[in-house]
Design goal:
The chain is about 35% helix and about 20% strand. It is α+β, with helices and mostly antiparallel strands. The chain has a 5-stranded antiparallel beta sheet with strand order 1-2-3-4-5, covered by helices on one side. It has one domain. It starts with a helix and ends in a 24-residue tail after the last helix. Strand 2 and strand 3 form a beta hairpin.
Length: about 130
């Protein structure tokens, strides 16, 4: 009985950052994203190519041009979780990038709709 308690205690010692990293690896495999460097991932969705990391999402064009926007996420959210969320949303609808670029600083739901209310806006209105 004591060994069962010790084993269970060891299994639950997973930190939020470690869980987020495992989640990111599963999402990358699911979406076909390839790890480029550190927590940066390259994702192809339709004819669009993205470079996603915990701070920015970049759209990479075949002509070598790129455009990017800042990823709005909760400050307490691990970087790996923010990357996984962006990968999932872009894989489901690559056109979200245009909406994100136009409305920088706001967070969006998985269905592409923007969260409403002052709580979800990360812009400083002061």
């Amino acid at each position: 009985m004591r060994s069962d308690l010790l084993a269970m205690r060891k299994r639950t010692k997973c930190t939020p950052a470690r869980r987020a990293t495992k989640y990111l690896k599963r999402i990358a495999a699911l979406t076909g994203a390839k790890q480029v460097c550190g927590e940066s991932y390259r994702l192809t969705a339709g004819r669009m190519h993205f470079l996603v990391d915990s701070k920015f999402v970049r759209l990479i064009s075949p002509r070598g041009e790129s455009t990017c926007f800042y990823v709005a996420a909760d400050p307490d959210m691990p970087g790996a979780e923010a990357v996984a969320s962006a990968l999932l949303q872009l894989k489901n609808d690559a056109r979200l990038f245009d909406k994100w670029r136009e409305l920088q600083g706001y967070t969006f739901k998985a269905n592409g709709r923007m969260f409403t209310g002052t709580y979800w806006s990360v812009r400083d209105e002061t």
